Amino acid sequence: MSKNEELQKLKEEMEKDNSLPLKKSDTNLVFGVGDPESKILAVGEGPGYWENLKGEPFVGNAGKFLDQLLTSINIPRGSIYITNVVHHRPPENRDPTPSEIAAYGKYLDEMIKIIDPKIILTLGRFSMAKFLPNARISSVHGKVHRVNWRDKEIVIIPMYHPAAALRNGEVMRAEKEDFLKLPQILENIKDKESKEKVEQMDLI
Ligand code: URA
Fold first, then answer.
1. Alpha-carbon distance 94 to 45, whole Å?
2. Which atom of ligand 1 is nearest to the CA of 82?
3. What would the pLDDT profile of 129-164 be if each residue is shown by its tens digit?
4. How far is Cα 17 from Cα 155, in angstroms, rounded to an integer?
5. Residue 31: alpha-carbon gap to chain centroid
C-alpha cells in the first residue's frame, strides 16, 4: 500500500471513531494535507474556524502566514505534509486539553509512522510538548533537537505558532529568523546522513 493509501485508510478509521472527544455535529475532520513522501512533517495545534469549514489544516490567517514563511525559503506548502495534534476544532478555538491531545495522539502517532519523516517542525507549544515535554518554546525555538521516537531518530525543530507571531512583533521577528535558518539546517542534516552512510559502508 502506498503512503497515500495508508493515510486514506487511517482517515476513514478516524471518521468512524465516535470516541474522539472534539467530534461534534458541527465539526469536520481536519486530517492533514500535503506530500506524504516528504521528509518534513509540520504539526500544529488544532483546526480553527476556516480549517473546520474547509477540512484542511492551516488555511486561515495563521495558515496564510505559514505559507509566506515557507515561500520565503522556497519550500512550497504542497511539498511538505501538514497536520495538527487534534483533528477537530476545539470550541471557541480554546486550547486542546491534555486528555483531548492524548485521544487524538494515537492517530497522530500512526500518521508519523506512515509518513516516516526525518524532520518534524512543531508549530506552537502543544506539538512541541509531544516530543520535548520539558522544553520552553522561548528557549528552544529554531534549534535542532534529535529525539528517539519509537526507536528511530527524528529531528525536531520547534517553531513558534504562526498565530502567536501574528499577535506579537517580537515573536514575529524570531519566527521569520527561525524559518530563514531552516535551509542551512536541512543541508546540515543531509550532510550528516550522507557521512553516516559512508561510515556504515566503511564498516562493512
Ligand atoms: N492553527 C493550528 O494550529 N492549526 C491549524 O490547522 C490552523 C491554525
1. 10
2. 6
3. 999 999 999 999 999 999 999 999 999 999 999 999
4. 31
5. 12
pTM value > 0.85: yes
Considering the chain, what percentage of its residues have pLDDT values greater than 90? 90
Sheet harboring 119-123: ordered strands across?
33-34, 81-84, 40-44, 119-123, 152-159, 145-149
Give 201 Cα–ligand 1 centroid separation in angstroms: 42
Place of cell 518534513: 40
Contacts of 102 (CB under 8 A, 6+ apart): none
Ligand 1 atom nearest the C-alpha of 127 is 3
Query: Between vectors from CA 86 to CA 81 and to CA 88, what angle results, nearest 5°?
Result: 105
What cell was used for 198? 559512508
Residue 50 φ/ψ, nearest 5 degrees: -70, -35
Instruction: Please state, in angstroms and rounded to a whole number, the distance separating the CA atoms of residues 105 and 122.
Output: 14
Q: pLDDT at position 4, please? A: 97
Cα three-residue angle 165-169-172, rounded to 5 degrees: 35
DSSP 122-175: EESHHHHHHH-TT--HHHHTT--EEEEETTEEEEEEEE--HHHHHH-HHHHHHH
Nearest protein Cα to ligand 1, atom 7 = 58
Instruction: Give the pLDDT band (50/70/90) at residue 197.
Output: confident
Q: Identify which of 50, 58, 122 to mutate to test ligand 1's pocket (most ligand atoms within 8 A of the CB).
A: 58
